[in-house]
Each structure stands twice: as structure tokens, then as C-alpha cells.
Amino acid sequence: MTYTRRETLVLGAGGLALLAASPALAVTADEAVAAFTGGAEMGEGGLEISAPEIAENGNVVPIEVSAPGAEEILVLAPGNPAPPVCRAKFGPNAGSQRLSTRIRLAKTQDVLAVARMPDGSFVQATRTVKVTIGGCGG
Amino acid sequence: MADVKPRVKVPGSAAAGEAFTIKTLISHPMESGLRKDGDGNPIPRKIINRFTCDFNGSNVIDMAIDPAVSANPYIEFDAMIDAAGEFTFTWYDDDGSVYSDSKAIDLA
Which pTM does this prediction carry? Predict the structure, then answer.
């Protein structure tokens, strides 16, 4: 079927619009977890997340994750437009497997942490944080 | 970036094998790439994407950082030494800049 020039233009414009409209696809929380664990089952226990129950300012939410003996801890904010927060690997001179930082939370959500233990197993923990003013500039 | 300043708090000395806390702060806007300026144009992403701390060449912590970490990233963790030496802290920026700081520490 031959397209008229007009039809081709419309098709082309439509295609471009589709491309332009799709935003850079952020990694979802599930994808980030799967990439970290390789799909392995996650247990519970041995990993703690400390965070305020209510975050006054979603731009600066203090959190602490601690997993004694862990090799690496992954932190995600599944309710954010871009869920990955950080991934910390602990080396031989680490004094503990604990990390404190401040994060942005776009809205009330369950902050998720996954830790990899030296025996190759994974554990996860979540913590609900209520956010009154979202912190992702949206 | 002239205004990116790291600040690190390490005790002057520590007993061998005993954990102690290190606090780090670096001034950096951590532009997530999700904000829009006054005209509605997205402000490009520019963040510190990695932070490492080594002691006498041996790694303490190696952290991959995503835009969900707040501006002026504060990172606190525990370290342990077995000899006197020096901590090196390195922050890696999206644009390739590398900021670093170091602190000497004695054995108590």
C-alpha cells in the first residue's frame, strides 16, 4: 500500500511522539531486587531499618540500615519515581555493617532493604515512612 | 566544581579491632534529573554516584549512590583499624569529577 505524503508525515509524527512521550524507564524496585539477588528467595531477620515514622520533609529523611555480618546492603524506595537509593558493600576494614544516610522520599511508602550475607543468602526488611511533603521535586 | 566541599569526622585515634564511627558530608546539589526549571525544561541529572572509603589501601565501604539520596549527602558508617594509618575518602560525580579527602589516625 503506498502512503500519500500526508499519511507518511502523520505516521512519522505519531511515531516520534510515542518515542518522545516514553520517559527514561526507571528501574523498578522489583528489577533492582532481582538484579541484586539473582532471583533468590529472601529471608527475614538480621537486617534492621531505622527511619522516622513520619518524615517532616521528604527531601531529607534520615535512615539507618544495619545487618551484622552482611557483605552488601541494597536500599530501595519503591514509592519513588526512581526506586534505587544506594548499595553499600562492606570491606575488610568496616567496623560494622551499618550505614546511616539521608534520602529523598516522594511519598508515604515502605522503604525496602535487602542484605546479602556471606553464605550467599539474602534477607529483606521494610519500614513504613509517612511523608507529608514529598521530596522528589515533583 | 569549586563549591563541592567534603567534610569528614574521624577520631584522632582508635584501639585496634574496635569499631568506631566515621561521619562524612559533601556539599553537592544531587540534581536528580527529575526536577524542572522555571520554563518547564528538565534539569539534567548530576549526582555523586559512588562513595568509597579505604584505610591504608584496604576497603572500608564502597557505596553506589542513586538520585534518591538527599542533597549534600551525609554518609555515616563504622570502621576498624589494626595499625596507624590513613583513611582516604573518594566521591565520584556523574560528570567524571572525583573529590577526595583523607584523614590520618593513630592507634590508641
Answer: 0.86
